Every structure is written in C-alpha cells, then in structure tokens.
Amino acid sequence: MNNTLRDLYQHIETITQEEQAKHSLVEYIDTHMGNLHKAVTISSASPSTAIFEFITSYINSAPDYLSAIYALALESKTYSYVKPFSSLACMFFIKPPEILLEYQGLQRLLYQAYLSNRLLEELNDQITSFGHPLSPLDISMDNIICHALIGDRLANQLDHLVLLSLETTVSDRSVFDEPESIRALEQMSKDNWQDVKDKWPCFSNDLSIKLQLGAY
C-alpha cells in the first residue's frame, strides 16, 4: 500500500507539472464559467483562479486522506475490513473507470479524486454505524461543491459507481466486534480526535473557504 500511495503522489505531481505547461484545466474553466452550476457561489475577485485552486487542493487531498485512513486502520486493528475499500480507492487512479477514459490531465484527476474521496466518506459513515468512526473525516461540503463543479450528469454516475462498489465489495465486519479494535477506535476519538488531527493535518483542512453553496 505504501508503494501504491507513493506512486500516486508522484503521478499527481507529474500531471500537475504538465498542467503548468499546457494550462488545459485553466482553459477549460475559463470556457465553462458560464455553465457553472448555479448552486456554487464564489467570493473572489478572480472566480476562475478560485475554482482552479479548489480543484488542485481537492486533488492533492485525495492521497493524504488515503494515507491517513490506511494508517488509522492499521492502528485500530481494522485493516482487514478497510483494505479492500482503500485498494479500490487507489484503483480509481490506477485504472480509471471506462466513463472517465475520454478525459485527460487534471480534469480526469478531479473526477478520480471525487471517486476516492466519496468512497472514503461513505466508508467512514459505514464504519460509524458499527459503533465508532475510523476518522474525523468531514469532507461532505467539499464533495458537494465538487459534485456541483463536475455537473449532475457525470457526478451522479460517479456517485452510483461509489455506492455500487460499496455494496459489492466483500469485507470482514467481525473486526468491529473485537475488544482490541473497539478500544482502539474509542481511544482515537477521544478529545475530539485532537491527536489524530495533529498527526494528520488533512482532517483539519478547509478546502471550500472560497467556494460555497448558494440557494438553488
């Protein structure tokens, strides 16, 4: 898993450097500003710059969340349950779903990051239903904004893919009945997850500060 995450960081860095030379995403944003979902409002003198910064931050957050979830799963003795889901989130980057093959560069990475982050969001909610969440992951607003930026048609398809993946992935739920795992999950969530947030600053990030949802 560590090697996969290292390769993912490098892949994102390579695509980002290519964007700096080609400006493909910047051009896409500029030409589609008029089609931006009406639910997204931008409090910035340069809306296209704000969107670009949000997208790049959102993409860069994906491997950070994957790294953190991986480490917390090991620490809480729940990795046997989390592993197939974290592997699937990585696979969204390694082997893009067919519906994303027509896209390239940072645009495709945005959609892949959305798949990964939505999967981790749903996974954390699912684990919470077993007793205690695995992490203080709270990226629902960022994912909602990303959904609006992508557009309902494609974003709904990606959401469906995430939910289908969760439903069809087989994993070992018995780990949440183990006293050792229960104690570890309880301990990690103490003091409002402060130790976890100190160790993994990504859980305290606020990517949506320049973008917000307006009224429909």
Largest sheet: 2 strands, antiparallel
Q: Count the DSSP helices.
A: 9
Instruction: Decide which structural class fits the backbone.
Output: mainly alpha
- Stretches where pLDDT is under 50 for at least 5 consecutive residues are none
Report the oligomer: single chain
Strand order of the largest sheet: 1-2
Radius of gyration: 18 Å
Strand segment count = 2
β-sheet strand percentage: under 5%
Which descriptor suits the 3D outline? globular
**CA-CA gap between termini:** 41 Å
The helical percent reads: 55-70%
Order of helices and strands: HHEHHHHHHHE
Average pLDDT for all residues: 90
Helix-strand layout with pairing:
Elements: H1 2-22, H2 24-32, E1 40-42, H3 47-75, H4 79-94, H5 105-128, H6 140-150, H7 152-168, H8 179-188, H9 190-199, E2 211-213
Antiparallel strand pairs: 1-2
What key attributes describe this structure?
216 residues; mainly alpha; two-stranded antiparallel ribbon; 9 helices; globular
